[in-house]
Amino acid sequence: xxxxxxxxxxxxxxxxxxxxxxxxADHEIVCVLGPSGSxxxxxxxxxxxxxxxxxxxxxxxxxxxxGVPVHxxxxxxxxxxxxxxxxRDVAGNVAFGLRMHGVPKAEQGRRVEELLELVGLPGxxxxxxxxxxxxxxxxxxxxxxxxxxxxxxxxxEPLGQLDRTLRERxxxxxxxxxxxxxxxxxxxxxxxxxxxxxxxxxxVMRDGRIAQSGTPREVWQRPASEFxxxxxxxxxxxxxTVTGGxxxxxxxxxxxxxxxPQGVCRLLVRxxxxxxxxxxxxxxxxVESLTFRGHHVAVRLRxxxxxxxxxxxxxxxxxxxxxxxxxxxxxEDVVVLAPTAG
Length: 342
Ligand SMILES: Nc1ncnc2c1ncn2[C@@H]1O[C@H](COP(=O)(O)OP(=O)(O)OP(=O)(O)O)[C@@H](O)[C@H]1O
Description:
- By secondary structure, this protein is an alpha+beta fold.
- It folds into two domains: 2-229, Rossmann fold, CATH 3.40.50; 230-337, CATH 2.40.50.140.
- The protein has nine helices and 20 strands.
- The chain has helices at 40-48, 90-94, 96-100, 105-118, 134-146, 164-181, 192-198, 216-221, 226-231, and strands spanning 2-11, 14-24, 29-33, 55-60, 63-64, 75-78, 152-156, 185-189, 201-206, 209-214, 237-243, 246-249, 252-255, 263-269, 274-277, 283-293, 296-303, 309-314, 324-329, 334-337.
- A six-stranded mixed β-sheet has the order 6-7-8-3-9-10, sandwiched between helices.
- A hairpin with a 2-residue loop joins strand 1 (2-11) and strand 2.
- Helix 6 (164-181) runs parallel beside helix 7 (192-198).
- Bound molecules: adenosine-5'-triphosphate.
- Adenosine-5'-triphosphate (ATP) binds next to strand 2 and helix 1.
- Adenosine-5'-triphosphate is lined by residues 11, 14, 16, 34, 36-42, 190.
């Protein structure tokens, strides 16, 4: 459906997109994730035709989009500040794109009803948009973007301004709506929870390039680099040397999965790999802090003469702050990363 080849965008000396290649298949939901300034919005704007490319091309359905204006690309856009028209009611907002496309009035009415039903706002057509909650406005914006049946729907921080609970709920609903309609989606977010919940495929960007692309499970289980691992919130990354089934690190010897690459590397030790036992078994540490995260506890450990280590355990197994424990390691949650810091 969408092919981006070698896309490059420069702003003066700054390269916002650096020879990016990306494919989005029919019906696929791709979420682009990355820190602020990594080029996510620029990528979206380039696909929409809102941003001129300094190099490379964008193809939709196999056709090069060079010179094709935004409104002729057949893409739907839903941006962060969803900019509903405050003077129009809900139906007037949803019907906007349909009017632009000259869809007859009766058909407009039917489509608006259908879409409001789909986004969970049945019969809300006559309501004033100013009287809607943030989440409801977001749904109206989504219905408006979906109304002209775009071949590609692009979302920029679609749930950016909503609180976490509402976001978590809406993201599941969105996935359902896209699945039912078979919509192809390219979304941008800096929120990894949102990206992982919404996407069939996650693309992580760094400095205008793609640092990793894979299914949520692949990226989560095997971050391609220290950058991706840290971006996902993993702090237990240290330099290491792997020999056979063991890595030598500042936390001592840590078992690695069978077949792991040998030699100098960075090692990611997921908190789940760290097993807490009595102080004389394993790496001796003091429990520095506990963070309760619902179903598990994040335990920050301070080993003697080594960097801090994050562990994770069940609520009932959580040690006391200040206690001495021994940390052991399970190979299945250890990942050998490329040797550089990137
Ligand atoms: N119109 C512009 N003029 C100059 N520089 C720009 C312009 N738009 C973006 N940039 C720069 O290009 C780089 C990529 O910006 P972009 O907005 O694509 O990043 P982003 O990943 O979407 O960030 P955020 O998450 O903060 O929105 C940044 O360094 C930004 O400062």
